[in-house]
Amino acid sequence: MKQKILLFVFFLLLFTPLILIAKNKITLLNNKKTEEIPNTDVETQIITKPVPLPYEKVLLSQMTNEQKVGQIFIWGVEGTLNLTPENREFIQKHKPGGVLLMQRNISDENQLRLLIQDIQSTNSIPLFISIDQEGGVVSRLKWNEILVYSQKSTKTPQNAFEISKQRGTVLKGYGINMNLAPVIEYSDNSKSFIYKRTFSGNINEVIEKSIASLSGYRESGIIPVAKHYPGHGNSVIDPHYNLPVIDIVNEQWEEHSKVFNIVIRNTNLDALMVGHILFPKIDSSPATISNIIIQDRLKSLGNFTGLILSDDMEMNALEGLGGPTELAEAALRAGCDILIYSKYSLDNRYHQQVVYEHILNLVNQNLINIDEKVLKILQLKIKYGIIDRE
Description:
Elements: H1 2-36, H2 55-61, H3 65-71, E1 73-76, H4 85-94, E2 98-101, H5 109-120, E3 128-131, E4 133-135, E5 138-139, H6 145-148, H7 157-174, E6 178-179, H8 203-220, E7 223-224, E8 226-229, H9 253-256, H10 258-266, E9 271-274, H11 291-301, E10 307-312, H12 324-334, E11 338-341, H13 352-364, H14 371-383
Parallel strand pairs: 1-2, 1-11, 2-3, 3-6, 6-7, 8-9, 9-10, 10-11
Antiparallel strand pairs: 4-5
């Protein structure tokens, strides 16, 4: 009996560790299998990091209606070394998105730099500092050959690229960040209003030079604004004084706007200007205030998503077509993102003040929404480093 007990104890001591080891292995295997089986419980929530808002949307969310409305205007200013005290107060109060430098604001290089610094100090959101520096007959700055070299003298696309890049570099050195150029219209009538301001050559050569010029400006860090959509063609009428009328029909539209259409399809065009031009067989309203031309043809059919600027809204071409507030509202509703008013006065002789107040009133009453326009403006300012990303 004693021997049986001893034998049982011996086997117990021998096999117990083995049983325990086997049990632990089974437990480990079960745990591993459990870890490998995905959790299919539909109630389990997956925690993900929130996607940060684009910086322009962050800025927009922090803006007042007054600031938003200011962004959709580019205004002419008064002053040389500095803004006049009255104009400075006006700019600080209304915070425009940009200014347009005219001949009256310019005397020399150092003065120009000081004026631009003064303008930029008026607003927490940096401004577009724009100028008409096409070269040739439209040259606000005239103190070197690069600045005044005309589009008509441009011989090749490479020449167009180099002139635009060099000119853009000069402009950027003064603090200018937007050039209302190049003119990318085609005209073969030497008596046309726009002829001397266009590139020379046949329509395909004009297209090639236009694309090259735009590329040169972009490479210099300047925003180029191609103009004047959809083109003055061979009209002899100057819109500064009267409204050009072009009597084409729908079937001729593609050919008339060909340069713009091809440039838009083949470049990343950031901005263009719409001209005050009437196409009576297309629409009864001039292009600047035409839904058919801007919304339907330029944006929908033309797939243009860049910034759309009006030509100067105080040109005589628009005289008799409505009051300043009516025209401004019509241009915005038609699809313009920025309206240009080149003349400032302390009273309401010119239209900056009355138009601003009218659009602000519409925004405050939710009668017009300009958020998408302001977003496009902020995006472009960020893209070109005008606004820093914090």
